[in-house]
Each structure stands twice: as structure tokens, then as C-alpha cells.
């Protein structure tokens, strides 16, 4: 299985939106993704296998800190290192744009994601109470410096 990690384009939004809707209880709209792709302070990438988008992630560059705000892999492609490859590439691109720290929030119950973030080098640095809705849950704040 050959995975291509590349910058997201407008053509990817349909497939990205499908993964978004299957993954999150409060998914972003297609228009939200279109708006973020137009901005100069964002980086969004996709993972592609056999011309199919199987994952995506993105960040906002806020004063040289990358706020990773969206990250998902199609259920059929989880546990195949695609998330690791995407996040590693996102950080690599961010570093080229002089981002020197990265942060994200993750549901406390999302053990698989937390394990992945630790593997990359993220560390827990606090809790956001009731950050998530549907279902309501605290978020763990993690940083990679």
C-alpha cells in the first residue's frame, strides 16, 4: 500500500468531508474546509491511497505555534501508520514555516490517538473541562516542542 501525503486542495474536500462526517459527532462543513484552505495561516494535508483520500489533518499557525485543529483517518485505514505519517509531515511543513511548538486537544477517552501523539513526542499539559459536546467530555491539552 503506497500512501501519498500532500497538501489538501479544493478537489479533496468532498472526500475529506465524508471522513469528517463519519468520524466526528459535530463535523465541520465543506464550506469551513474551503475557507481554511484560502487562509495564509493554515496548513492542511491529506493522505491518499489509490487515488482515495483516507485521512487529513491541519493546523493554524498562531504566532509560530501550530494549533492542530483537525485530524482524522478513515476507519478502514487506521492502525496502518497513516496518522503517524500525516502528523510527522504536518510538523515537518510547519517547521519549514518557522513554527516551533504544536498543540492539540484530544478526548480523554481517545486512547489510540493519545498513544499516537505520545509516540510522536507530544506531552500532556492540562485539561479543558467539558471541551467536547455530543458526548460531553474533557479534553487533554498536549504540546510538542
From TrEMBL:
Entries under InterPro entries matching the protein: AcTrfase_RimI/Ard1, Acyl_CoA_acyltransferase, GNAT_dom, YpeA/RimI_acetyltransf
Keyword 4Fe-4S included in the entry's annotation: no
Entry's localization field: Cytoplasm
SUPFAM superfamilies: Acyl-CoA N-acyltransferases (Nat) (SSF55729)
Molecular-function annotations in GO: protein-N-terminal-alanine acetyltransferase activity
One Gene Ontology CC term in the entry: cytoplasm
N-acetyltransferase domain boundaries: 3-145
Domain of life: Bacteria
One Pfam family hit: Acetyltransf_1
UniProt signal peptide: none
PROSITE patterns reported in the protein's UniProt record: GNAT (PS51186)
Broad EC category: transferase
Transmembrane spans: none
EC number: 2.3.1.266
Catalysed reaction, written as an equation: N-terminal L-alanyl-[ribosomal protein bS18] + acetyl-CoA = N-terminal N(alpha)-acetyl-L-alanyl-[ribosomal protein bS18] + CoA + H(+)
Annotated keywords: Acyltransferase, Cytoplasm, Transferase
CDD domains noted in UniProt: NAT_SF
Family: Belongs to the acetyltransferase family. RimI subfamily.
Role played: Acetylates the N-terminal alanine of ribosomal protein bS18.
Protein name, entry field: [Ribosomal protein bS18]-alanine N-acetyltransferase
Organism name: Lachnotalea glycerini
UniProt lineage: Bacteria, Bacillati, Bacillota, Clostridia, Lachnospirales
